[in-house]
Design a protein that fits this description.
By secondary structure, the chain is of the alpha+beta class. The protein is built from eleven helices and nine strands.
Length: 332
């Protein structure tokens, strides 16, 4: 399989930079359930291009039942976000049948860090950390103000739709957990009034951002969960405690405060959103993560997968339950 990718990248080098271009230093960076990421250079006359390939290696299976976008849709989202002024890796090429790489696209490679724990602790990022929450707010406002790309089948979701989907997943697993039972009831009763849906990233959090030690947020990654929905969903998701990486005192990504996030959102052109609405979606995010953790464990316990990573993630359901208790006790 890797040989096929390398052959395809060699053809792609010639297609993008001419017959004398050569492939340099191609290496696989990661592999999820269905997507691979490759870093590679194309050298033509001593002028190398530093690039990233994202390709689907296996059929798309989303454990949450969400209607995620394909890589062609992700490419369209990158263009739309860039046009709106959001920092994203520039799209270089959407692969087609001639490339022999399957469903894939190529972007420029952006320098920086994506590991959340390093971003919140490494002294190298100390000078930019204080501004990250405000930057994230500004970037979300630009994304939410972007016209959704047509023809890519974006799902439309509000709070009741999300609750229905995750409760179906939760009930299918079997065990009932009192805190999660309370959370489903509480979030249904207190669901906010619907708003006009906007383009939502769907997974905007520490870990899906490239952070540069000189400029802060250099790029927003992983757009496959994008949809049309409540703008407070993105604002709440980055505040989920699981994405703070050991800094619970910094509710926004482990590096900032609510006030900074909201100020950045309004500065970026977004409307004023009540903090209570953001915290509602933060609680929704903790509930969603709890169900995902349960499903991870169930996939291992049922024998569907033997990956030790699944039960390790499954243990974290209790963390999400603690987050929910703290939010409810605070008067959500």
């Amino acid at each position: 399989m890797e040989t096929d990718v390398l052959v395809g990248l060699g053809r792609l080098a010639a297609r993008l930079r001419g017959p004398h271009a050569c492939l340099v230093d191609a290496r696989r960076l990661s592999g999820g359930a269905s997507l691979e990421t490759w870093a590679f250079d194309i050298d033509a006359a001593g002028e190398p291009d530093r690039l990233i390939l994202r390709r689907r290696a296996f059929p798309k299976v989303d454990p949450t039942g969400f209607q995620s976008v394909n890589l062609a849709g992700e490419a369209a989202l990158l263009r739309a976000a860039a046009a709106a002024g959001a920092p994203v890796p520039p799209l270089i090429h959407l692969c087609d049948e001639a490339d022999g790489l399957g469903e894939a696209h190529v972007t420029s490679r952006i320098d920086g860090e994506t590991l959340g724990r390093r971003i919140v602790t490494d002294p190298a990022y100390e000078s930019v950390r204080p501004g990250l929450a405000r930057q994230c707010g500004e970037i979300m406002a630009r994304i939410h103000g972007a016209p959704p790309p047509p023809g890519i089948g974006l799902a439309v979701e509000d709070a009741p739709v999300v609750l229905d989907r995750y409760e179906r997943l939760y009930r299918a697993i079997g065990p009932e957990r009192p805190i999660l039972e309370l959370a489903f009831r509480h979030l249904r009763v207190n669901a906010p009034d619907p708003v006009a849906p906007v383009l939502v990233h769907g997974d905007f959090r520490n870990g899906n951002l490239i952070i540069d030690p000189g400029v802060g947020v250099a790029a927003v990654l992983d757009w496959e969960m994008a949809h049309l929905g409540d703008p407070a969903e993105d604002l709440g998701w980055i505040c989920v405690n699981s994405w703070r990486f050991g800094r619970p005192d910094r509710p926004v990504g482990g590096f900032g405060d609510y006030a900074e996030l909201m100020a950045g959102y309004e500065q970026g052109g977004g409307p004023a959103i009540p903090l209570g609405r953001v915290r509602y979606w933060q609680a929704m995010g903790s509930l969603m993560w709890a169900v995902i953790c349960m499903r991870m464990y169930d996939s291992w316990a049922s024998g569907l997968t033997n990956s030790v990573e699944r039960p390790m993630i499954g243990r974290r359901v209790s963390e999400a339950e603690i987050d929910l208790i703290n939010l409810f006790e605070a008067g959500l």
